[in-house]
Amino acid sequence: MTIIIDEKEYSFPNYTLNYLDYRDLDNRIKTKIPQDIFNSLLNDLDCTKEFSCGRPMMTNYPMYARNINAYFYILETLNYTENNDEYKEYINKLIDVHTKNIKFEINNPYIPPITKSKKSKRKIITYKTKDLITGEDTFLIQDIKTKKYKVNKDPNILNKHKKHTGRDLSEMYFDFTNKEEY
Asked: Which of 80, 99, 105, 181 has the smallest count of CB within 10 Å of its CB?
Protein backbone atom coordinates (compact mmCIF):
# COMPACT_ATOMS: atom_id res chain seq x y z
CA MET A 1 0.00 0.00 0.00
CA THR A 2 1.46 3.32 -1.04
CA ILE A 3 0.26 6.82 -0.18
CA ILE A 4 1.57 10.16 -1.37
CA ILE A 5 1.58 13.13 1.01
CA ASP A 6 3.18 16.46 0.17
CA GLU A 7 4.84 14.92 -2.90
CA LYS A 8 6.49 12.22 -0.76
CA GLU A 9 5.70 8.58 -1.31
CA TYR A 10 5.21 6.30 1.71
CA SER A 11 4.83 2.55 1.37
CA PHE A 12 3.21 0.32 3.96
CA PRO A 13 2.83 -3.46 4.08
CA ASN A 14 -0.27 -4.75 2.34
CA TYR A 15 -2.81 -6.95 4.10
CA THR A 16 -6.41 -7.88 3.36
CA LEU A 17 -8.74 -7.54 6.32
CA ASN A 18 -11.22 -10.38 6.81
CA TYR A 19 -14.82 -10.16 8.02
CA LEU A 20 -13.79 -10.65 11.67
CA ASP A 21 -11.43 -7.69 11.41
CA TYR A 22 -14.18 -5.53 9.92
CA ARG A 23 -16.64 -6.58 12.61
CA ASP A 24 -14.13 -5.84 15.37
CA LEU A 25 -13.25 -2.46 13.90
CA ASP A 26 -16.90 -1.50 13.40
CA ASN A 27 -17.60 -2.34 17.05
CA ARG A 28 -14.62 -0.20 18.11
CA ILE A 29 -15.92 2.71 16.04
CA LYS A 30 -19.37 2.45 17.64
CA THR A 31 -18.11 2.21 21.23
CA LYS A 32 -14.91 4.27 21.43
CA ILE A 33 -13.68 7.75 20.67
CA PRO A 34 -11.68 7.85 17.41
CA GLN A 35 -8.65 9.31 19.15
CA ASP A 36 -8.54 6.33 21.54
CA ILE A 37 -8.82 3.88 18.64
CA PHE A 38 -5.95 5.52 16.78
CA ASN A 39 -3.79 5.72 19.90
CA SER A 40 -4.34 2.03 20.71
CA LEU A 41 -3.47 1.02 17.14
CA LEU A 42 -0.34 3.20 17.21
CA ASN A 43 0.62 1.64 20.53
CA ASP A 44 0.17 -1.83 19.01
CA LEU A 45 2.35 -0.81 16.04
CA ASP A 46 5.27 0.13 18.29
CA CYS A 47 8.15 -2.20 17.35
CA THR A 48 10.63 -0.76 19.85
CA LYS A 49 9.29 -2.89 22.70
CA GLU A 50 11.53 -5.82 23.52
CA PHE A 51 11.10 -8.43 26.24
CA SER A 52 13.22 -11.35 27.40
CA CYS A 53 11.12 -13.71 25.26
CA GLY A 54 11.50 -11.57 22.11
CA ARG A 55 9.76 -8.73 20.29
CA PRO A 56 5.96 -8.77 20.27
CA MET A 57 5.78 -6.69 17.07
CA MET A 58 8.04 -6.29 14.04
CA THR A 59 7.43 -4.64 10.67
CA ASN A 60 7.52 -7.99 8.86
CA TYR A 61 4.81 -9.55 11.05
CA PRO A 62 1.34 -9.98 9.49
CA MET A 63 -0.22 -8.35 12.56
CA TYR A 64 1.74 -5.18 11.80
CA ALA A 65 0.27 -5.00 8.29
CA ARG A 66 -3.18 -5.78 9.71
CA ASN A 67 -2.98 -2.91 12.19
CA ILE A 68 -1.87 -0.47 9.49
CA ASN A 69 -4.76 -1.48 7.24
CA ALA A 70 -7.13 -1.24 10.20
CA TYR A 71 -5.83 2.29 10.77
CA PHE A 72 -6.62 3.24 7.16
CA TYR A 73 -10.01 1.51 7.33
CA ILE A 74 -10.99 3.57 10.38
CA LEU A 75 -9.84 6.76 8.64
CA GLU A 76 -12.06 5.90 5.66
CA THR A 77 -15.02 4.86 7.81
CA LEU A 78 -14.96 8.10 9.79
CA ASN A 79 -15.06 10.00 6.47
CA TYR A 80 -11.81 11.82 6.96
CA THR A 81 -10.71 13.38 3.69
CA GLU A 82 -7.19 14.26 2.63
CA ASN A 83 -7.92 17.96 3.02
CA ASN A 84 -9.04 17.53 6.61
CA ASP A 85 -6.55 18.60 9.29
CA GLU A 86 -7.40 15.63 11.52
CA TYR A 87 -6.65 13.26 8.62
CA LYS A 88 -3.24 14.83 8.13
CA GLU A 89 -2.55 14.67 11.86
CA TYR A 90 -3.39 10.94 12.10
CA ILE A 91 -1.48 10.09 8.93
CA ASN A 92 1.57 11.99 10.16
CA LYS A 93 1.43 10.08 13.47
CA LEU A 94 1.30 6.80 11.54
CA ILE A 95 4.21 7.82 9.31
CA ASP A 96 6.26 8.87 12.34
CA VAL A 97 5.65 5.54 14.10
CA HIS A 98 6.38 3.58 10.93
CA THR A 99 9.67 5.39 10.20
CA LYS A 100 10.69 5.06 13.88
CA ASN A 101 10.04 1.30 13.67
CA ILE A 102 12.05 0.90 10.48
CA LYS A 103 14.98 2.87 11.90
CA PHE A 104 14.86 0.84 15.11
CA GLU A 105 14.90 -2.48 13.22
CA ILE A 106 17.80 -1.34 11.03
CA ASN A 107 19.86 -0.19 14.02
CA ASN A 108 18.86 -3.14 16.25
CA PRO A 109 18.54 -6.32 14.18
CA TYR A 110 16.47 -8.99 15.87
CA ILE A 111 18.41 -11.80 17.51
CA PRO A 112 16.10 -14.54 18.78
CA PRO A 113 16.58 -15.44 22.44
CA ILE A 114 18.43 -18.64 23.21
CA THR A 115 16.03 -21.21 24.55
CA LYS A 116 17.05 -23.34 27.46
CA SER A 117 17.42 -27.01 26.69
CA LYS A 118 14.79 -29.27 28.10
CA LYS A 119 15.64 -31.44 31.03
CA SER A 120 16.55 -35.01 30.26
CA LYS A 121 13.85 -37.55 30.87
CA ARG A 122 16.45 -40.16 31.75
CA LYS A 123 17.00 -40.81 35.43
CA ILE A 124 20.23 -42.79 35.07
CA ILE A 125 23.34 -42.20 32.94
CA THR A 126 25.74 -45.06 32.27
CA TYR A 127 29.43 -44.56 31.41
CA LYS A 128 31.89 -47.19 30.14
CA THR A 129 35.43 -46.79 31.53
CA LYS A 130 38.57 -48.87 32.13
CA ASP A 131 39.68 -49.83 35.59
CA LEU A 132 43.18 -48.38 36.06
CA ILE A 133 44.40 -51.22 38.30
CA THR A 134 43.02 -54.32 36.57
CA GLY A 135 42.53 -52.94 33.04
CA GLU A 136 39.02 -54.40 32.84
CA ASP A 137 35.99 -52.58 31.51
CA THR A 138 33.87 -51.11 34.28
CA PHE A 139 30.55 -49.33 34.06
CA LEU A 140 29.69 -46.28 36.11
CA ILE A 141 25.98 -45.73 36.70
CA GLN A 142 25.09 -42.19 37.78
CA ASP A 143 21.76 -41.18 39.26
CA ILE A 144 20.97 -37.73 37.81
CA LYS A 145 19.11 -36.40 40.84
CA THR A 146 21.48 -37.53 43.59
CA LYS A 147 24.69 -37.36 41.47
CA LYS A 148 25.89 -40.62 43.08
CA TYR A 149 27.83 -43.28 41.18
CA LYS A 150 27.66 -47.06 41.32
CA VAL A 151 30.42 -49.21 39.83
CA ASN A 152 29.44 -52.39 38.01
CA LYS A 153 31.58 -54.85 36.00
CA ASP A 154 28.66 -56.46 34.14
CA PRO A 155 28.96 -55.66 30.38
CA ASN A 156 25.22 -56.17 29.89
CA ILE A 157 24.42 -53.18 32.08
CA LEU A 158 24.34 -50.91 29.01
CA ASN A 159 21.54 -52.97 27.49
CA LYS A 160 18.32 -52.06 29.14
CA HIS A 161 16.28 -55.00 30.19
CA LYS A 162 12.62 -54.99 29.32
CA LYS A 163 10.31 -55.14 32.26
CA HIS A 164 8.74 -58.57 32.33
CA THR A 165 5.36 -58.82 33.92
CA GLY A 166 3.28 -61.94 34.07
CA ARG A 167 4.16 -65.23 32.42
CA ASP A 168 5.02 -66.39 28.93
CA LEU A 169 2.18 -67.67 26.81
CA SER A 170 3.71 -71.18 26.76
CA GLU A 171 3.58 -71.35 30.57
CA MET A 172 -0.11 -70.48 30.75
CA TYR A 173 -2.84 -73.01 31.11
CA PHE A 174 -6.27 -72.38 29.66
CA ASP A 175 -9.33 -74.25 30.86
CA PHE A 176 -12.36 -74.02 28.59
CA THR A 177 -14.53 -76.54 30.47
CA ASN A 178 -17.93 -75.54 31.70
CA LYS A 179 -17.65 -74.43 35.32
CA GLU A 180 -21.11 -75.77 36.15
CA GLU A 181 -19.79 -79.35 35.87
CA TYR A 182 -17.56 -78.91 38.91
From this structure: 181
The rounded distance, in Å, linking the Cα atoms of 45 and 117 is 32
Give dist(CA 2, CA 86) in Å, integer. Answer: 20
Is pLDDT at 41 greater than 80 in this prediction? Answer: yes
Tell me the mean pLDDT in the region 28-46: 88
Contacts of 90 (CB under 8 A, 6+ apart): 38, 71, 75, 80
Strand order in the sheet with 137-143: 124-130, 137-143, 149-152
- What is the model's pTM? 0.56
Domain boundaries, the chain: 2-107, 118-156
pLDDT band at 116 (very low <50, low <70, confident <90, very high): low
